[in-house]
Amino acid sequence: MKNVTDSFVSPGHWSSAGSFGFNTDILATNPINLSVVIGVLIFFGKGVLSDLLDNRKLRIVNTIRNSEELRGRVVEQLEKARARLRKVETEADQFRVNGYSEIERDKLNLINSTYKTLEQLENYKNETIQFEQQRAINQVRQRVFQQALQGALGTLNSCLNNELHLRTINANIGMFGGMKEITD
């Protein structure tokens, strides 16, 4: 070890003291260089490293806090969405139940109105049949009456002569004259 310390302390060992150069003796230079570099880093880099670590810690804490706040808002929004979903599902069930009952009510109303309409149509049909029957009966009556009248006129015209005709007219005038005296 004396060799190592002598090389730093003894000026005879530094042959190029006036110039810059590299000492390639690894055993002599590395522990010292490393201790100097580590010492400088610790002395000067302590504040910078501490600031960097503090800033990093602060950013991590802020990120965690923001994440927790965001998580809280998201959970709150999720609960609101679940409540709205339950409300909408309840309303949908009510609409479904009301819709089914309304459909059944409309179905019954339609069936009832159809029965009423069919009953009215049946009544109209029966009235129309009665009217047509009455009209047909009246037409038959008129034809029978016309044929009977034509037959009677034909019979009268063939059977009546002028003298019988005059007697019938006089008898009818006498009857009307007698009726007139009774009404006066």
From TrEMBL:
Cell compartment(s), UniProt: Membrane; Plastid, Chloroplast thylakoid membrane
UniProt GO MF annotations: proton-transporting ATP synthase activity, rotational mechanism
Keyword Lipid metabolism recorded: no
PANTHER family xrefs: ATP SYNTHASE SUBUNIT B, CHLOROPLASTIC
CDD domains, alphabetized: ATP-synt_Fo_b
Pfam families in alphabetical order: ATP-synt_B (PF00430)
Protein name: ATP synthase subunit b, chloroplastic
The organism's place on the tree of life at top rank: Eukaryota
Membrane topology: Single-pass membrane protein
General remark: In plastids the F-type ATPase is also known as CF(1)CF(0).
